[in-house]
Amino acid sequence: MTIGVPGLILILIILLIIFGPKKLPELGQSLGQSLKEFKQSTRELTQDDQNDSDRRIDRQ
């Protein structure tokens, strides 16, 4: 299931109607910060897992 360009335009119009043009940049900024923190946490977890597996291999 893909949204496509018309779907994205419709979603943006609905968001503008619901939240208004003044609140929309704040919502975008908070969403961007949340995604950045999520990506950073995911990277840290995968690095920890990688380090753990490297330690197990070194012990053998």
UniProtKB/TrEMBL annotation:
It is found in: Cell membrane. It is a single-pass membrane protein. The keyword Transport applies. Its main location: membrane. It comes from the Bacteria. InterPro entries: TatA/B/E, TatA/E. Keywords: Cell membrane, Membrane, Protein transport, Translocation, Transmembrane, Transmembrane helix, Transport. The chain crosses the membrane at residues 6-24. Residues 41-60 are annotated as: Disordered. PANTHER family: SEC-INDEPENDENT PROTEIN TRANSLOCASE PROTEIN TATA. Part of the twin-arginine translocation (Tat) system that transports large folded proteins containing a characteristic twin-arginine motif in their signal peptide across membranes. TatA could form the protein-conducting channel of the Tat system. Forms a complex with TatC. Belongs to the TatA/E family. This is Sec-independent protein translocase protein TatA. It comes from Alkalibacillus flavidus. The lineage of its organism: Bacteria, Bacillati, Bacillota, Bacilli, Bacillales.
